[in-house]
């Protein structure tokens, strides 16, 4: 058994144990049912909700908003990262700001975005980008910094142009670190957009969860929370596996 498989099985075992423990705690009424319901009831409620299509519109609204914010975050963050990497003086000035960026309470600007763009998806997209773009910039800088100099010299020896060097040398070497940025941008986009829907929105998963919470509809609330958790975890695990594969291939190169 490989080390990676052993780690994966250990994580699955811990997760299964936690779910079983939570199920037992709820079934034995050690926790008030108004506070927490058993995981089996969350799954059953989620299944019936997905089958009925009751929240299909909210799911589509949130996922489409996240997808737009993610694509824009990746494109803008990568372009800005390349530009900052090419300008050392600018980078020296921006490094402290980028390092401390996430200490800024970005959510306080959401009402301002609503006032400027209106009560629609645009403020949520801007909020998701406000979280995702800096992560992509930092990962792009990290990836470009880690391109081995010997590869760049080899490209010069073979007289590769800038585009050829970027396509055949820089991007393959930096790709694992760029995937880290994509993974972070995805997580931050979900956090920013769903939290924004909690605060002020007329649709979306965050709005549906907040509405269920206000109406004491625990089954609906926990089912939707479980759905978000499963989807985001699945996407991040997929990107993590791809990232690890690229890292191993890069180490062998």
Structure description:
With 253 residues, this protein is mainly alpha-helical. The protein has a single domain (57-252), classed as MetI-like fold, CATH 1.10.3720. The protein contains 10 helices and no strands. The protein has helices at residues 3-27, 39-52, 56-86, 88-99, 110-117, 121-145, 149-157, 162-199, 205-214, 218-252. The two termini are 24 Å apart. The mean pLDDT is 84.
Structural class: mainly alpha
Q: Provide mean pLDDT, rounded.
A: 84
Classified by CATH, the class is: Mainly Alpha
Percent strand equals under 5%
- What is the end-to-end distance? 24 Å
CATH topology: MetI-like fold
SSE string, helices as H and strands as E? HHHHHHHHHH
User: Mind telling me which CATH architecture this is?
Assistant: Orthogonal Bundle
- Tally of separate helices: 10
CATH superfamily: MetI-like
The tally of beta strands, per DSSP, is 0
List keywords for this structure.
253 residues; 82% helix
Outline the secondary-structure elements.
Blueprint: H1 3-27, H2 39-52, H3 56-86, H4 88-99, H5 110-117, H6 121-145, H7 149-157, H8 162-199, H9 205-214, H10 218-252
Helix pairs in contact: 2-10, 3-6, 3-8, 3-9, 5-6, 6-8, 8-9, 8-10, 9-10
Brief synopsis:
The protein is an all-alpha fold. It has helices spanning 3-27, 39-52, 56-86, 88-99, 110-117, 121-145, 149-157, 162-199, 205-214, 218-252. The chain has one domain: MetI-like (MetI-like fold), CATH 1.10.3720.
């Amino acid at each position: 058994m490989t080390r990676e498989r052993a780690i994966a099985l250990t994580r699955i075992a811990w997760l299964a144990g936690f779910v079983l423990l939570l199920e037992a705690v709820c079934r034995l009424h050690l926790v008030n049912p108004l506070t927490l319901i058993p995981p089996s009831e969350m799954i059953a409620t989620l299944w019936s909700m997905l089958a009925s299509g009751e929240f299909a519109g909210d799911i589509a609204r949130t996922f489409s908003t996240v997808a737009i914010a993610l694509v824009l975050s990746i494109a803008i963050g990568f372009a800005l990262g390349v530009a900052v990497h090419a300008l050392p003086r600018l980078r020296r000035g921006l490094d402290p700001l980028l390092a401390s960026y996430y200490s800024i309470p970005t959510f306080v600007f959401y009402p301002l975005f609503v006032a400027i763009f209106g009560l629609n998806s645009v403020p949520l997209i801007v909020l998701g980008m406000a979280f995702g773009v800096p992560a992509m910039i930092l990962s792009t800088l990290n990836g470009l910094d880690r391109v081995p100099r010997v590869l760049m010299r080899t490209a010069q020896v073979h007289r590769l142009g800038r585009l050829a060097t970027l396509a055949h040398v820089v991007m393959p070497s930096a790709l694992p670190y760029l995937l880290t940025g994509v993974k972070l941008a995805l997580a931050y986009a979900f956090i920013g957009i769903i939290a924004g829907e909690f605060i002020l929105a007329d649709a979306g998963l965050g709005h549906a969860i907040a509405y269920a919470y206000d109406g004491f509809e625990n089954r609906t609330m926990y089912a939707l929370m479980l759905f978000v958790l499963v989807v985001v975890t699945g996407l991040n695990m997929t990107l993590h596996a791809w990232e690890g594969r690229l890292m191993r291939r890069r180490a062998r190169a």
